[in-house]
């Protein structure tokens, strides 16, 4: 499956072992991850926030790994009118890349009615769907 991973999933994976970390491991091993330069920039910016200082090295390592294995696309689609404009880049990247899913911890930020054929999945839903 071709997927886009929201920053909140990457942050959770860097901070603690659990579902989000498993999502990253499974995604890298078994799926096509899609990124765009603005998504990478957000991963890096969020990882540098003071509250994430103890996890900064892990965030950088995870971001570096994702950049190495991901398909990188240039977003060129108009916004979808999502509730949080900062989340637009994730959906735009998914649409431009033909991704089947966007994995996020913030379902309410991605109303399915606005997301077309891109399935919006929680980390748990992603793992359940992938077996």
Give a quick precis of the structure.
With 131 residues, the chain is of the alpha/beta class.
Question: What topology emerges from the helices and strands here?
Answer:
Elements: E1 2-5, H1 7-15, H2 19-30, E2 32-35, H3 37-47, H4 56-69, E3 71-72, H5 88-97, E4 101-103, H6 112-115, E5 119-121, H7 123-129
Parallel strand pairs: 1-2, 1-4, 2-3, 4-5
Helix pairs in contact: 1-2, 1-4, 2-7, 3-4
What does this structure look like?
By secondary structure, this protein is α/β, with parallel strands linked by helices. It has a single domain (about 1-130), classed as Rossmann fold, CATH 3.40.50.1010. It is about 50% helix and about 10% strand. The protein contains seven helices and five strands. Helix 1 crosses helix 2, helix 2 (about 20-30) crosses helix 7 (about 125-130) and helix 3 (about 35-45) packs antiparallel against helix 4. The protein is globular. The model has no long low-confidence stretch (mean pLDDT about 95).
Low-confidence stretches: none
Could you tell me the CATH topology label. Rossmann fold
Structural Rg: 14 Å
Integer tally of domains:
1
Give the class from helix and strand content and strand pairing: alpha/beta
Name the descriptors.
Rossmann fold, 131 residues, alpha/beta, five-stranded parallel β-sheet, 12% strand
